[in-house]
């Protein structure tokens, strides 16, 4: 009995172990058997002539994805591609190399991306790429995916299904602000400004909606408009500037969203010019400061731009000083007529500046008889001076810094992925001269 009982227990344990193994294999097989899908999202888009729209190419239920490529086509007579941007999916697992080629004549794009280094692939769901289109003509077309290649970290192909997208230009309900025109643009407080707002009904139905005009965020006026399908009108507004002080004012107009409207991106418009209300006397100001980089290698340059404005009613001779912390970078002299502005741009050569953070500021020296000097100083953000080639500011120049520049090779400011910090030479293109800086300093550490 004892032997039989022992054998029964042994068999039961073996059977239990077998069932556990079968269960684990079934779970593994089920995970591997999940269908990988590459799709256009949203699957259907409506956007009218002159508008832009964006789609994502998404991936679902993928295991160990290391690299991918897809092609997508459209009607070249109806649409143009304005940008192609890498999605975040692969980048969650490490550094990537992303590229694309657009054929605007035939209407297709080839997009590919791969991870870098001996690292595992990425699993799950996410965005491979985002594409923005501009609508040239009315109509409809397929946004068709084809020639999809997915590879895992062992360079084995991953089978997938694909789902196309679709675009059409017809819009049942859609109103828009197409222009905001203002005059005059330089005034004294209490003067009137004429604001003409052009609004359009781009939908298929007659619409009643409100048009609101703003000065910065303050409402100037609101009017109700009735427009038939396809028609447009110019609505005149008048802004009494009594009570508004010296400064620059952004004028904008917004159309209220009508029932059933989907495309609301063009319901608002900002005037191309700002209204300047002058101070009746002598008054200069620094209204903006910008730097071309947030990280600059020691011994190399970065551009600094300061926007100076004459808010007074007199012609002024102005002196402007640019500082890094309390160290003077440069001093400039300029002249400005009443209400005019100019941008002073200079190159900051960081030779001799210690490693660390520098707050960039500009100061316009008060002109004779100026009383309001509170806006004569403008403080920008921080620029960090680092060891030459140490672009991630971790105290050592290594492969991470070289890789950071290499991934941006060939890019210029017109590219949506442009990172000015990688343009070490500051010549408007990331090339071998920029890669050469961390390469020559490889292994150096910050004292």
Keywords:
447 residues, mainly beta, Immunoglobulin-like, 3 domains, five-stranded mixed beta sheet, 50% strand, flat, disordered N terminus
Characterize this entry briefly.
The chain is mainly beta.
Structural class: mainly beta
Shape: flat
Uncertain stretches: 1-32
User: What's the helical proportion of residues?
Assistant: 10-25%
Mean pLDDT: 91
Work out the oligomeric state of the chains in this entry.
single chain
The CATH class name of the largest domain reads Mainly Beta
Number of strands: 28
According to CATH, the homologous superfamily of the largest domain is: Immunoglobulins
Largest sheet: 10 strands, mixed
Straight-line N-to-C gap: 80 Å
In what range is the share of β-strand residues?
A: over 45%
Describe this structure in words.
α2 runs antiparallel to α3 (432-440). This protein has helices at residues 2-33, 399-406, 432-440, and strands at residues 36-41, 44-46, 52-73, 79-86, 96-103, 108-115, 122-135, 140-152, 160-163, 165-168, 175-183, 186-188, 192-201, 207-215, 218-227, 232-240, 247-249, 251-255, 268-270, 275-278, 284-291, 295-297, 301-310, 316-324, 327-336, 341-349, 356-364, 377-386. It has 447 residues and is mostly beta strands.
């Amino acid at each position: 009995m004892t032997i039989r009982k022992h054998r029964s227990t042994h068999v039961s344990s073996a059977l239990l172990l077998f069932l556990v193994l079968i269960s684990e294999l079934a779970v593994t097989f089920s995970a591997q058997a999940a269908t990988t899908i590459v799709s256009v999202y949203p699957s259907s888009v409506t956007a009218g002539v002159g508008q832009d729209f964006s789609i994502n190419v998404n991936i679902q239920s993928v295991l160990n994805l290391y690299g991918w490529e897809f092609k997508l086509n459209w009607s070249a007579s109806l649409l143009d591609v304005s940008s192609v941007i890498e999605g975040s999916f692969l980048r969650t697992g490490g550094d990537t190399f992303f590229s694309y080629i657009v054929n605007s004549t035939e209407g297709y794009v080839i997009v590919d991306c791969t991870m870098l280094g001996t690292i595992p692939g990425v699993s799950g769901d996410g965005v491979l790429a985002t594409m923005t289109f501009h609508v040239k003509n009315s109509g409809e077309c397929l946004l068709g995916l084809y020639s999809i290649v997915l590879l895992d970290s062992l360079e084995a192909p991953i089978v997938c299904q694909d789902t196309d997208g679709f675009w059409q230009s017809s819009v049942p309900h859609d109103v828009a602000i197409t222009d905001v025109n203002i005059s005059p643009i330089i005034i004294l407080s209490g003067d009137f400004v004429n604001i003409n707002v052009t609004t359009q009904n781009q939908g298929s139905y007659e619409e009643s909606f409100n048009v609101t005009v703003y000065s910065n965020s303050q409402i100037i006026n609101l009017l109700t408009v009735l427009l038939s399908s396809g028609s447009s009108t110019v609505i005149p507004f008048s802004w009494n500037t009594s009570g508004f002080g010296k400064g620059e004012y952004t004028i904008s107009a917004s159309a209220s969203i009508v029932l059933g409207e989907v495309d609301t991106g063009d319901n608002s418009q900002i005037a191309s010019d700002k209204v300047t209300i002058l101070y009746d006397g002598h008054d200069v100001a620094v209204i903006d400061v910008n730097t071309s980089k947030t990280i600059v290698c020691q011994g190399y340059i970065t551009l600094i731009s300061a926007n100076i404005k004459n808010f007074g009613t007199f012609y002024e001779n102005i002196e402007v000083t640019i500082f890094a912390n309390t160290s003077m970078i440069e001093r400039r002299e300029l002249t400005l007529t009443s209400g005019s502005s100019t941008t002073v741009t200079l190159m900051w050569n960081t030779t001799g500046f210690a490693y660390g953070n520098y707050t960039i500021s500009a100061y316009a020296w008060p002109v004779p008889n100026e009383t309001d000097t509170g806006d004569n100083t403008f403080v920008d953000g921080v620029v960090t001076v680092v060891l030459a080639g140490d672009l991630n500011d971790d105290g050592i120049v290594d492969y991470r810094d070289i890789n950071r520049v290499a991934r941006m090779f060939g890019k210029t400011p017109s590219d949506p992925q442009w990172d000015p910090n990688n343009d070490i030479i500051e010549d408007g293109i990331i090339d071998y001269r920029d890669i050469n800086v961390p390469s020559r300093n490889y292994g150096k550490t910050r004292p």
